[in-house]
Write a structure and sequence with these properties.
The protein is of the alpha+beta class. It contains five helices and six strands; from the N terminus they run H-E-E-E-H-H-H-H-E-E-E.
Length: 151
């Protein structure tokens, strides 16, 4: 797969915007090589979309287009003055209407990081965390039971 430059990226984003939203994308889109755990982000104050190029090389064009559509949902709702955040109903509805993913897959380098596992003593709910948690301070979110570190 050839390396995409930012003018080709802007063309792709504009094409997806016209196809799925019937509106042009007129603002800035760039690759941000510093993004580590997310496929992209929308910066409302700058009206700018930043995308993680690693997702294009790791998962291919289909996953990358899904990330772009997700960020375009944030973009178009923000411009229209509607709720553009993840918890807003307008955002969730637009994701469904355009077939955009709610979350992207974890990168292989991030997915293989050491995980801490905790299990509820009462209901056996399993919790996987990258960071350790204080089991005397935190309880199960399902039943409020005590958590135990899995070995």
């Amino acid at each position: 797969m050839s390396i995409m430059d930012e003018s080709e990226l802007h063309q792709l984003v504009n094409q997806l915007s016209l196809t799925y939203f019937d509106k042009p994308f007129t603002d800035s889109v760039v690759f941000n090589h510093r993004l580590r755990t997310t496929g992209g982000r929308y910066l409302p104050s700058q009206r700018k979309i930043e995308l993680n190029k690693k997702y294009l090389s790791a998962y291919g064009m289909d996953e990358f287009e899904g990330i772009i559509k997700h960020e375009l949902c944030h973009y178009h709702l923000h411009i229209e003055g509607k709720g553009y955040k993840h918890g807003d109903e307008a955002f969730k509805q637009l994701l469904r209407n355009t077939g955009s993913p709610r979350h992207c897959q974890a990168l292989p380098s991030v997915r293989n990081q050491h995980m801490h596992e905790y299990r509820c003593i009462s209901c056996s709910q399993l919790y996987k965390r990258r960071r350790r948690i204080n089991t005397s301070k935190f309880r199960c979110g399902r039943c409020s039971g005590k958590l135990k570190k899995e070995i």
